[in-house]
Amino acid sequence: MNKYKLVSLVLAVALLASLVTVMKQRQTTAPVDTASVVFKNIYDRRSIRFFKDRVLSPAQVDTLLRAAMAAPTGRDRRPWRFVVVDQRAALDTMGAHLPYAAMLIKAPMAIVVCGERTPRVPEAEDLWPYDCSAATENLLLMAQAMGLGAVWTAVHPYPDRVALVKRVLRLPENVIPLNVVPVGYPDDPAQPKRKYDRDNIHYNTW
User: Fold this and answer.
1) Which residues, 6+ apart, have CB-to-CB distance to 74 below 8 Å?
2) Per residue in 53-71, pLDDT tens?
3) For residue 120, which of 38, 72, 86, 126 sits 20 to 30 Å off, Cα-Cα?
4) Using CA atoms, how far apart are residues 113 and 98, in angstroms rounded to an integer?
5) Half-sphere exposure (Cβ direction) of 153: Cα atoms closer than 13 Å
6) What's the pLDDT score for residue 76?
7) Which residues neighbour 89 within 8 Å (Cβ) at sequence distance 6 or greater?
């Protein structure tokens, strides 16, 4: 056997060995069941009201907002506007005066989800509350997936709460706050609630 045939044989053996290794790796690595991962994230989401003394990074906040703005929106209007609040004075003021939002006093930050009213569209036909609700749910689910905690605290449609948040954050007249979402690292033993109920399901007719 000449040296060229010997080199060819060595290369062929090496290639075969590499292919065998790759095939073994593929066999031992189970495929990711994306549906199960997504369902578990949805099913395990909790409303978190207690937070650790730890700040979020700008990259984490950006990821939350990107997820929020991936929500569906009627007529593609995208009326959502977001105010990221990490100034202690603003958080404490809202926490002291908004019902059910006292956790803001301990939260490292909050994201206020707002809707910008569409000009010349009657209020009854403006879809901003629905679009912003979808965006909020995306935000909450993304927080869960990132190991963070969050909770939806309502502002709209309560006039006194809307007025307070608009004043504290200096919102324009046509921008309405839907909710305030405290976000942080959870320090809360709360367990997810199991809300599935067959009695709420109907097929074809009631």
Assistant:
1) 127, 130, 131
2) 999 999 999 999 999 999 9
3) 72
4) 15
5) 25
6) 95
7) none
Residue 132 belongs to what domain range?
35-184
Residues 6+ apart with CB under 8 A from 68: 80, 82, 111, 113, 135, 136, 138, 139, 142
Helix (H) or strand (E) holding 149: strand 149-150
Asked if the structure places residue 192 within a domain, the reply is: no
Q: For strands 175-184 and 153-154, give the pairing.
A: antiparallel
Return the CATH number at 154: 3.40.109.10
Query: Would you call 201 helix, strand, or coil by DSSP?
Result: coil
Number of structural domains found in the chain: 1
Q: Is 1's pLDDT higher than 90?
A: no
